[in-house]
Amino acid sequence: MARQEQHLQVLSALDAAKTQWYHFTAIVVAGMGFFTDAYDLFCISLVTKLLGRIYYTDLTKENPGSLPPNVAAAVNGVAFCGTLAGQLFFGWLGDKLGRKSVYGMTLLMMVICSVASGLSFSSTPTSVMATLCFFRFWLGFGIGGDYPLSATIMSEYANKKTRGAFIAAVFAMQGFGILAGGIVTLIISSAFRAGYPAPAYQDDRAASTVRQADYVWRIILMLGAAPALLTYYWRMKMPETARYTALVAKNAKQAASDMSRVLQVEIQEEPEKLEEMVSRNNTFGLFSRQFARRHGLHLVGTATTWFLLDIAFYSQNLFQKDIFTSINWIPKAKTMSALEEVFRISRAQTLIALCGTVPGYWFTVALIDVVGRFAIQLLGFFMMTVFMLGLAVPYHHWTTKGNHIGFVVMYAFTFFFANFGPNSTTFIVPAEIFPARLRSTCHGISAAAGKAGAIVGSFGFLYAAQDPHKPDAGYKPGIGVRNSLFVLAGCNLLGFICTFLVPESKGKSLEEMSGEAEEDDEVEMAAGGPWAPSWGHSGSC
């Protein structure tokens, strides 16, 4: 067991601190980064139909234009590729240079690339899509850095009693970012529809897409810079986390000074105790045998669960076409003008976010420090498996007339339990269980595994779910939506099993979880395998 006298006073003060104003400041500053991330990553799906109409419509054809499959995959997926690279790079850099200095870099990159992605050069389809993809890759790169840094900063600032809720609250801003993307698109498309009325495509093909529609998608993408810009000043004002300053930079004086100011209490510097703590147990690296023995399977667990979760989470686009069309939220494209189609897509996405996405995040915030990470993650994966099978087994029943409302309810519950479940916990746990000097790196690796799952879910299943007999234009026959749902249920079941590789961190300090407060022999006992940390009793040591 970790002994209290081995703890630095500055770390003990943070662990025991009552919820104060600086906690909420940190949640807002880190959370607004996530708000921006979600807005930027998800808003592209609201305007891809519009891009197809503007740049790929052939007026001799019965239906309006749509992005060719390879272009659609590039436009939607290039930001994910950038995010994966950014998570690995900035995760590593956050451990080398410090959380605060790297945090500002990611934000500036997001602001610049959000604006630039709306300024795609020229007017030919190829050049517009090429420049859009270029800037969205680098936008994703900046967003990628926000994952490990936001989680690590919040975990290192929080007290141990409510740490899970604080990190979950940062992640929950993702839900509001998705919601904001829908609302902003609704407002802008409504304003342009009112100002520039247009007939449906089937009534007048040329006039159905007004020239001003080209401004709509650009404005929506560029507005992603606004929330990030608003929080830049506050990010720069935040002091470096005490855990990085003390345990990685080995500057006890600075750590005590920074946290004395933040907590408004007198904190002793204790350089001798820091020296003893660091020298005893702070040498092994990421690729060492010691790391593999102590945390190797933990990292495998956090990475695999995030990977498997994101396959299912980002495959939601499989259902949306069926749902929105079947309940007439989005009629056939030729019966609408370009701006009306944008309006209807954003309205549908906003309702989904409001009913199925946002509530799940806040259930996690409320309950994670009550029932623990393990229970929420297991429940989430289990219920996602159940609801995916509930969609798949009687799939033909759900797609017949009169049963569509049941399909929508099942769909909403699947993503409620993703957010009140592994979508939140896979973000939280990697920020709590690894040593301070490797925390950001390991979170970045776990998050990058998740983003690889997102790429598989978004694009692998987009092709796999094609009807074996009547695939969409430009696609090859696949295994169909029903069989894809069975595969996704299997992914959730694997996630359920892999959850057992990750230790419970509820109620424990970061140093207890990482072994930094313990002697080498004590760490060996505590890390006697991923099955050793008890899920059942998660109280403080």
TrEMBL record:
Membrane topology: Multi-pass membrane protein
GO biological process entries: phosphate ion transport
InterPro entries in alphabetical order: MFS_dom (IPR020846), MFS_sugar_transport-like (IPR005828), MFS_trans_sf (IPR036259), Phos_permease (IPR004738)
Disordered, as annotated region: 511-541
Localization annotation: Membrane
Top-rank taxon: Eukaryota
GO molecular function, one term: symporter activity
Major facilitator superfamily (MFS) profile domain span: 26-507
Keywords: Membrane, Phosphate transport, Symport, Transmembrane, Transmembrane helix, Transport
Name assigned to this protein: H(+)/Pi cotransporter
Organism: Oryza brachyantha
Lineage of the organism: Eukaryota, Viridiplantae, Streptophyta, Embryophyta, Tracheophyta
